[in-house]
Amino acid sequence: MTKIIHRGWFSIAIVVALINGLEVPFNTATYAYIFKLITTRDLAGVGIYLAIVLGGYLFFSLLSYQQSWVVNKNVAFINLRLKTRYVEAKVERDDPSQQDFEANGLSFLMNDLKLLEDNYWRNVFRLLGYGTTILVTTGYALHNSFRLTGIFLAFMLVPMVFQRLASKGTTTKATVWSQKNAQLATRVKDLLHGAMTIRRYHAEAGYRTKLLRDVGSVEEANAALKNRIALANSLLMYLFYLFSETPIAIGIYLTISGILTLPEFVAVQYSTNMILNSVNQMLTCINQIGSTKDVRQQLRRSISKEGVTAKLPMKSAQFQELRLTNISFKREHRDILNVVNLRVQKGEKVLIQGPSGVGKSTLLSIMLKELPVTNGQLLLNGQEYDDAQVENLFSKVSQIPIIFAETVRYNLTLGMPFSEDAILVAVRQAGLSDVIKESKLNQQIAEDGKNLSGGQLKRIEIARALLFKRQVLLIDEGTASLDSATVRQIHDTLLSLTNLTVIEVDHHIPHELLSKYDRHYQLNNGRLEALN
Ligand SMILES: Nc1ncnc2c1ncn2[C@@H]1O[C@H](COP(=O)(O)OP(=O)(O)OP(=O)(O)O)[C@@H](O)[C@H]1O
């Protein structure tokens, strides 16, 4: 909590909110002062009254601006911390194979954290101000008439009891709203990604109904949430009015009977009215804060460090051997791999071929521990291992290149410090030199790499994998979209790096390159068959 909040700015916000909370008591005191002036016929006091009131309101107006400013400063700081921590946790710890991983993350960042800002943090600062108002105004009222103030406050307790009942249901409504938003984010992300295809086939009508339904459910859920909060607030407001009229009648009786003076009655009545208002506002804030319970829990789960296991170092940081023994893997009760055995030793170059959909990519994911096997054993350097342990040893060129909407340089280095020479060597080894001259390293790549060719994007991924110098390189159809001269050139480099272990799956490898692999397998019907 303390790391999310900037202590200095938060303290200033508390002080400003507390001082600003004095506006109501000031208001009350000056209002009661009017009646005192009238009943004592104090003509000279009128000027003093005007000066105090005008000066006071000028002060509170400026303070009100100051309060907004300091609250915005705090909210900006809190958002900065929460948003970056949330994204960091998603990138570094969450499982990217979860359904709608990207859309859910985006939706949480854009919608749920906004709900948290509006309904939680801003209300926390409001509560501080109302707290001061209630405290000081109650003191002032008690000072004027202990008895009448006691009666007012006792009546006020009744509606407060109803507050918890009235706020029930806001959390549920907020959860529904959040789920609908995530659903809409998935839909829009998908539509924007496929916009060109939809236009090409004039298929706009095909998605409109689904889009309307998803946007409609978000808006419905939003309205339902706001209505629930409004209903709770209106109910509370009515209860407050209901229970404040009786003490007013008692106050009138006491004043007519001469037990209270008119200024005392006005001071108590006005003060308690203001206390009532502030309590009402406070409960409204608490209601809204309640609607963020689920978001807060989700955020806490996401950014908490619990459950993160420390990365265990491998017995040896040097890759020696990867051994797969009797590996079987089922997907939705369907056998994909069936008793696969494979042993890859340091420096070996292994090629696995097989028809489309046979399970080649699945086999690589299993090696990386991205997928759990149904049966069998995987050993790295003779040891069982987990996904964290392969991170320092393995790199992977994916079937669909992972490209960031950043510069070419960032896409190669991922923002890590590499020497210019090392970058240029990797660029050359990946066959990118003619495409990316030194000056073009700072060229911006568009979203999803739209301003580069498929082959260029593939080569960027290969260069990245080479630059990071992991000892084992897994290549999933890494050169499939390249012309045969470039495929040959890249493989000449990759297959000649003696310390690099390569496990490649591809069915487009030119025939003359096959002999350069130490081992060549065919994956068929879930089994690996050695071809050399
Ligand atoms: N996330 C998934 N959920 C369910 N089934 C999947 C999933 N990913 C892949 N499959 C299925 O698992 C099987 C193996 O897929 P995999 O991607 O490993 O094949 P592949 O040999 O790499 O194919 P290709 O050469 O076309 O890339 C396929 O039948 C595929 O439909």
TrEMBL record:
Residues 12-291 form the ABC transmembrane type-1 domain. Its main location: membrane. It comes from the Bacteria. This is ABC transporter. The keyword Nucleus does not apply. It holds the Pfam family ABC_membrane. The lineage of its organism: Bacteria, Bacillati, Bacillota, Bacilli, Lactobacillales. It is a multi-pass membrane protein. GO terms for cellular component: plasma membrane. The keyword Zinc-finger does not apply. CDD domains: ABCC_MRP_Like. The chain crosses the membrane at residues 12-34, 46-65, 124-142, 148-166, 235-256. GO terms for molecular function: ABC-type transporter activity; ATP binding; ATP hydrolysis activity; ATPase-coupled lipid transmembrane transporter activity. Gene3D superfamilies: ABC transporter type 1, transmembrane domain, P-loop containing nucleotide triphosphate hydrolases. Residues 322-531 form the ABC transporter domain. It is found in: Cell membrane. Keywords: ATP-binding, Membrane, Nucleotide-binding, Transmembrane, Transmembrane helix. It comes from Furfurilactobacillus rossiae DSM 15814.
